[in-house]
Amino acid sequence: MPADPKSEFILELENVSKYFGTVIALKDVTLRLRRGEVHCLLGDNGAGKSTLIKILAGCHRPSEGVFRVDGEPVVLRSPGDALDRGIATVYQDLALVPLMSVARNFFMGREPIRLLARWIRVFDRETAAQVATAKLSDMGIRVRDADQAVGTMSGGERQCLAIARAIHFGARVLILDEPTAALGVRQSANVLRLVGRARERGISVIFITHNVHHAYPVGDSFTLLNRGRSMGTFRKSEIGRDQVLDMMAGGLEMQKLMAEFGVRV
Amino acid sequence: MAATTEPDPRTGAAPGPADVSPEPARAVDGGDGSGPRAVETAASAAPGDERVRTLSTFHRVMGRPESASIAGAALVFAVFALTAGHSGMFALDGIVNWSTVAAYLGIVATGACLLMIAGEFDLSLGSMIGFSGMMAAIPPLFFGWPVWLSMILALGCAMALGWLNGQLVVRTGLPSFIVTLGFLFILRGLTLALSIIFANRTIVSGIGDLAAQDPVASFLFSGTFANPLFDWLGRHGVIATLDDGRPLVRGIPKVILWWAVIAAASSYRLTRTRFGNWIFAVGGDANAAKNVGVPVRRVKVALFMFTAFCAWTFAMLQICDVGSAAADRGLQKEFEAIIAAVIGGTLLTGGYGSVVGATFGALIFGVVQIGITYTNVNSDWFRVFLGMMLLVAVLFNNQVRKRVTEAR
Hints:
The structure holds two protein chains of two kinds. In chain A, strand 9 (173-177), helix 6 and strand 10 (204-209) form a beta-alpha-beta unit. Chain A has helices at 49-56, 79-84, 102-106, 125-138, 155-168, 185-200, 212-218, 241-247, 249-260, and strands spanning 9-20, 23-34, 38-42, 64-69, 72-73, 87-90, 113-116, 120-123, 173-177, 204-209, 221-226, 229-235. Chain A is α/β, with parallel strands linked by helices. In chain A, helix 5 (155-168) runs parallel beside helix 6 and helix 8 crosses helix 9 (249-260). In chain A, 34% of the residues lie in helices and 28% in strands. The mean pLDDT of chain A is 85. In chain B, the strands form two sheets. A two-stranded antiparallel ribbon of chain B has the order 1-4. A two-stranded antiparallel ribbon of chain B has the order 2-3. In chain B, helix 15 (333-343) crosses helix 16. By secondary structure, chain B is mainly alpha-helical. Chain B is globular and about 65 Å long. Chain B contains 17 helices and four strands. Chain B starts with 37 loop residues before the first helix and ends with a helix. The longest helix of chain B is centred in the last third of the chain and has 27 residues, at 296-322. Chain B has helices spanning 38-44, 57-62, 67-84, 92-117, 125-143, 147-172, 176-199, 207-213, 215-220, 227-235, 254-272, 274-284, 286-291, 296-322, 333-343, 355-374, 381-405; strands at 203-205, 224-225, 252-253, 324-326. The chains are: A alpha/beta, B mainly alpha.
C-alpha cells in the first residue's frame, strides 16, 4: 500500500497479534483511528486492552500485523518513539508525583529552561507556573496556585492534569487508559468533558474503558475486544448503547445477574 | 536550538506538524488563553466544584521542608544563649568552634540530603571518609607522591566507588540500604587492611605538614582564609588578640567556606535547575519519572557520586586540619548526615526535602554538640538529645508528608 500522508486514518493496526510465549494475548485485531475522533476501546478484564495499549504506546512490538501512522507502516521501538510521532499515552498511574507541585509535574522531564547570565541554564519556574496554570484553565481546571502539591488534588483533577500535559507536549493521538476507572460520577463527567474538548481541538483519542456508560456519550466509534479478539468496530450511528453492552462479556453477565436477582430486563 | 524540530526551550512544547496540530502551544504572556474558542470559555466555568482553599501564611510557611529545622535552630540558639551566654560560646572563638563542627557535618549532610530526596541512602559515606583520607595520606608519606596528586587519586577512587554504589543500586533494584551497608564494611575493612599493609599502623601522621607545603592542597584545604581581615580587626581591637598582638582567631576555617559553597550550589541545583526537578521526580515516584522521560538511573548514579565527593571533601579538610589520617575516621558520619537531613525536613522515603533544611540540621548538631560543653550539663546527654531531636523531626515530617500527599 502506498504511503499516503493524507490518509483518513491517523493510526491503524491491521491484523495485529501479540503472543507471550504460549499465551495469545491478541489475535488478528484491526483498529483504525480517524483523525479527530474519539475511539472507544471496550472490553472486560483480560480482553487484551492493556496489551493493545502497550503496542500503541510503543512498549511492545506486535508479533504479527502492521502498524501504520498517517498511512505509513512504522515500527515503534520505544515509548519515546511513539511520543516523537505525537502518540501520547496517559496511563492509569498518570505518571504524576504527588509530592511535587502542579508546575513541576506538568513539566517533569521537559523543564523549560531560562539562561541566567547567558550561560547558566536554570529551570524557568515562572514560565512553568504560568504555562501550567494557563493550560489547565484552557481545559477548564482552575489552579489557584501552581505551587500546590499534586497530592492535594482530587483524582479527577489529576487525570485532567495528566491529559492537559500530554496535549501541551504535542500529542496528536491521546491514548487514555481507563481514565474514569477510579473516579466518582461528577469527576468522571469532568474527564469526559475534557475528552470532548480534546476532540474539538482536532486531537484523536483512544479511550480505553470497560464502562459503556462513560464510553457511549463521548465516543464516535467503538471497538470491542473479547478474549484477545476484536468483535468489530462500529460507528455510533450503527449501534446503540445497549447493543454495545450486550456485546461485551460484561453485558451478558449483568443480564444473568439481574435475572438471578429477579430483576426484569 | 537551531533545529526546528527541537522543543521550544521556553515552554518545552513540541512543535507538532502545522496541518495536524490544532493549536501550537504558545508561550503565555498575556494570559489570554481562550480567545477564538468561545465554546470553551463557557465550558471552563463549569468545573468550579473542584475545591481549592487558600492556606494561611503560617501553614504555607510550615509546609516548607526546612521551616521546622530553622525554628529548631532558633530554639537551640535561644536555649544556649540563656544557659551558656556568658561562657564564651558566642565569642568569636566559640563561634568558630561550633561552626567548624557544623561545617564538617554540613558538607556530608548536603550530599546525603540530595541522595535521600532522590530516594536512596548512602551508608558507606562514613567509611568513604576514612578511605579517602587514607588514600590521600599514604602515597605522599610512603612513596613520595606530591600531596595534590594523591588527593586526586583519592578523589578518583571515591568517585569510582560512588559510581559503583549507584550502578549496583540502579541495576539490581536492591535497596540502597543493603548495597551501601555492604560498602560500609568493605571500605572500612579496606582502609584498615591497606593502612596496615602500607604503613603498618592505623594512624598515619605527618600528612598535615606535607599538605601545608603543597601549594594546591594548602590553598584548598589547609588552615583559614580572610586572615588579613582578622589581623586588621585584631589590630583595631575589634576582636580578641593574643599577647603578641596576633588575633586569637586567625581567620575563618576553610571548611566553613567549603560548606557554604557546597550547600549554596546544591540548594541552587535542587530548586532552580532541571536536574533539581529530576531529583524530586526520581525520589517522588521513580516509575512516573521514567515514564515522562527523566533519566532515572543517571540521576541516582550522579547523586551517589556527589555524596562520595562530599565524603572526599570532608576527608581532605580533615587530614589537613588534624594532620593525620586514621582508619576509624568518619565513623558513624553516615548516620549523623542522615539525621541532619531528616531534622532538616527531608523525608526518609524521598521526594521531599531541602538543602537549606539539612544545613540548619547540621547547625543544630554543631551548636548542641559543642554548646553542651559550655554548660554544666554532662556532655553524655548530647546523644540522648540527638536521638530525641531525630524522633521529633521524623514525626513532624510524617505529618507534613500526610498533609501533602493525601487528597482531600
